[in-house]
Amino acid sequence: MTEALSTLFEGHEIRVLEQDDNLWFPLTDIAKAWGIDRKTPANLIDRNKELFRGMYRTVGDVTYHDVNERGLYLLMGKISADRLKNPDAKTAMIRFQRWVPELIQQYRKKAIVQIQEPSINQELLQARGYAEACNQDPAAFQAAVFRKHNLNEFADIVQPALVHGEVARWYNVTQLCEMCRDDALAGHPERLNAYLKNHGYQYREQGLWRLQPSGEIHGKEYWYEAPSGHREIRIRWQLSILYASGLLHEVE
User: Fold this and answer.
1) Quick one: 137 and 226 in the same domain?
2) CA separation for the pair 127, 116 (Å, rounded)
3) What are the DSSP calls for 194-228, one per residue?
4) 182 is in which domain, residue-wise?
5) 3 state SS of 7
6) Other beta carbons less than 10 A from residue 3's beta carbon
7) Burial of 249 (0-12, 13-18, 19+ CB in 10 A)
8) Which three-class secondary structure state does DSSP give residue 17?
9) For residues 241 and 196, is the Cβ–Cβ distance under 8 A?
10) Helices in 53-160 by DSSP H: which ranges?
11) Would you say the pTM of this structure is higher than 0.85?
12) What are 137-186's pLDDT values in tens digits?
C-alpha cells in the first residue's frame, strides 16, 4: 500500500510516500526546498550509483524520481552546504537538516496529514520534467497545466510557436521595467531584480543573476558576448514572469 502525505518546509511542499516499508521523498521537492537546481540531486546520484544502490527509484530507465530515508540523509551529506555558491541555498539546507528528523518522526507517529494538492508551480515544474523526458517542448506541457486551472491567459503566453503561430517573445529586465505597473519598480531594473530574487525566481552568484527552479518556468539563461569579447550569463524573461510574481494582472 502506498500512502502519500505532505507537509511544508518554509512554504515548500515536501511529500512523503510510504511503500514496501520505506519512506520515499521526491527529488524535485527536495531541490526546490533547498533552492538548488532541480537536476543537481539526480546528477549526484548518477555519478554515485553504486553508493546510492537501493536508495533511489526511477521513472522508466533514465529519470531519477525519489530517494528513501537513507538516500535523503546521504544526499544531505554529499551536497555540502559549505560548497553551495548560493548563500540562500546554504542557509535553507542547514535549516532543512535540522527540520527533517522532526518531519520523519511526525510521519512515523502518523501526525502528518495530506494538507493540499501540489501547487501550480510544482505542477509546472513537473510538466517541464515530463517534457524533457519525452524530448518535447516544455511550453506545450506547461500550457496544459495553466488550462487545467482555467488560467488561459497564461497558457496563451507560454503556448509554443508551432501552435500559437508566432515566435515567443523574450525581454531583458530593463524592458520588463517598462511594462511593470508598480511605480516603485518601473524604470528601476535593480529593484526589479531584487524583487524577483526575494520572490524566489533568481539568485545572485559571483555578480551574475541565475535562475532558481521556479524561474526556469518563465525565463532562460544565455551567454551574452560584449564587443570586447567578454562573455557572461544573462537572463531573458517571458512576460509571464510579471503575472506570476504579481506585478501584472489580467483585466476581467
Assistant:
1) no
2) 19
3) HHHHHTTSEEEETTEEEE-GGGGGTEEEEEEE-TT
4) 170-252
5) strand
6) 11
7) exposed
8) strand
9) yes
10) 69-78, 87-108, 120-133, 138-148, 152-158
11) no
12) 677 777 788 777 767 656 666 654 333 333 457 888 988 888 887 888 88
